């Protein structure tokens, strides 16, 4: 009896390998377990939309990606596969947790294919790469699989879930209350699994510890505090910023330095616990560096 059970179990696994096959899914680290401001253009009427999308480790539960298919509400999705294309681009496939039926005989399942590009840790853009499916409301770019002939989770993404025609429109995920902007030349890199990279970030053109993100025809530098410009080579004069200058104590002068600033006590004052006291200093000591050699941030 034991051998018979093992035989039947083995046979079941072989015949149902497509159903049971599992691929590994890993969302970009920044995106996981976070709420994002989701901006996109509605497929059905081209109207701009803005809402909040909450992403768990590998799921979109009770999601605002909420579709109706033949009376069945579909709004819970689980990531089933992913492909890291580069250090900034990731291809991800989500499968609907629920199936739907268009009649008594067949059940279907929906899939979302997303191609993410990281701009900064607070800003991503992505495209849905499947064709528009008009049988769901609202119309959306989703892949549909016959549940009676299910697509394996580890099926080739670009030739299965992510096949599309037309020109998908850009969608963005921005961390709430942040202001990073999508570069003007941000675009969908085709084909599906291509990064279109001549790596413009190797070597890194961003100076003074700036971080670089490569795009199809350009690159973008995110500068560290105290620097700005295309390649982070322009020093920011913090002493011209009244708010930052106010951080220097009374009876001190703000001195701009490369990438930072210092607060120096005026002649006749000396530093005591971060303030400039009126105790006279020797004429040889023109000023005292307060140790405010600050790099803000």
From TrEMBL:
Residues 1-21 form the signal peptide. Pfam families: EGF, EGF_CA. Its main location: membrane. GO terms for biological process: cell development; eye morphogenesis; negative regulation of developmental process; negative regulation of multicellular organismal process; neuron differentiation; positive regulation of signal transduction; regionalization; regulation of macromolecule metabolic process. Gene3D superfamilies: Laminin (2.10.25.10). Disulfide bonds join 223-232. Keywords: Cell membrane, Developmental protein, Differentiation, Disulfide bond, EGF-like domain, Glycoprotein, Membrane, Phosphoprotein, Repeat, Secreted, Signal, Transmembrane, Transmembrane helix. It is a single-pass type I membrane protein. The keyword Glycoprotein applies. It is found in: Apical cell membrane; Secreted. GO terms for cellular component: apical plasma membrane; extracellular region. Residues 197-233, 235-277 form the EGF-like domain. InterPro entries: EGF, EGF-like_Ca-bd_dom, EGF-type_Asp/Asn_hydroxyl_site, EGF_Ca-bd_CS, GAS-SHBG-PROS, NOTCH1_EGF-like. One of its GO terms (molecular function) is calcium ion binding. This is EGF-like domain-containing protein. It comes from Mytilus galloprovincialis. The lineage of its organism: Eukaryota, Metazoa, Spiralia, Lophotrochozoa, Mollusca.
């Amino acid at each position: 009896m034991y051998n018979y059970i093992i035989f039947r179990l083995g046979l079941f696994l072989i015949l149902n390998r497509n159903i049971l096959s599992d691929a590994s899914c890993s969302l970009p680290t920044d995106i996981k377990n976070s709420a994002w401001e989701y901006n996109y253009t509605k497929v059905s009427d081209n109207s701009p939309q803005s809402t909040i999308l909450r992403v768990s480790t590998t799921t979109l539960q009770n999601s605002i990606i909420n579709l109706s298919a033949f009376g069945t509400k579909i709004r819970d999705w689980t990531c089933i596969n992913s492909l890291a294309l580069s250090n900034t681009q990731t291809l991800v496939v989500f499968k609907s947790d629920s199936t739907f039926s268009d009649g008594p005989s067949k059940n279907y399942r929906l899939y979302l294919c997303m191609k993410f590009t990281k701009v900064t840790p607070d800003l991503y853009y992505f495209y849905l790469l499947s064709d528009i499916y008009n049988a769901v409301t609202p119309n959306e770019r989703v892949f549909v699989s016959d549940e009676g002939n299910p697509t394996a989770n580890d099926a080739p993404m670009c030739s299965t879930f992510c096949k599309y025609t037309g020109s998908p429109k850009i969608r963005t995920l921005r961390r709430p209350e942040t202001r990073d902007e999508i570069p003007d030349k941000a675009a969908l890199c085709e084909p599906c699994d291509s990064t279109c990279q001549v790596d413009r970030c190797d070597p890194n053109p961003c100076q003074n510890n700036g971080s670089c993100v490569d795009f199809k025809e350009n690159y973008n530098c995110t500068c560290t505090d105290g620097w700005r410009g295309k390649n982070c080579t322009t020093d920011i004069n913090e002493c011209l910023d009244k708010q930052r200058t106010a951080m220097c104590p009374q009876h001190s002068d703000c001195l701009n330095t490369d990438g930072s600033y210092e607060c120096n006590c005026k002649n006749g004052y000396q530093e005591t616990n971060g303030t400039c006291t009126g105790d006279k200093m020797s004429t040889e000591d023109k000023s005292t560096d307060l140790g405010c050699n600050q790099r803000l941030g």
